[in-house]
Protein: chorismate mutase
Organism: Sphingomonas donggukensis
Amino acid sequence: MTDPTLERYRQSIDNIDAALVFMLAERFKVTQAVGRYKASAKLPPADPGREDAQIARLRGLAAEANLDPEFSEKFLRFIIDEVIRHHEKARGDG
């Protein structure tokens, strides 16, 4: 017999995980379009100033949400690195 309270928590976690996957998919659709645009406009795949601003913004949001800012930065850095890899590929570098 499963514990109903634990099952409710797990269902919520499963729902959140599903939402995260779909949100990341949408984010990558947009960043892939950005990569194609950057390639056609001969812009560099990476934008360190934008990346730094986004990391600072996300760290602030994380602090407001009582989420470890270090974790949020690592998570965003992982995403940014993947986006840059896609942009390099769109440009023909990868």
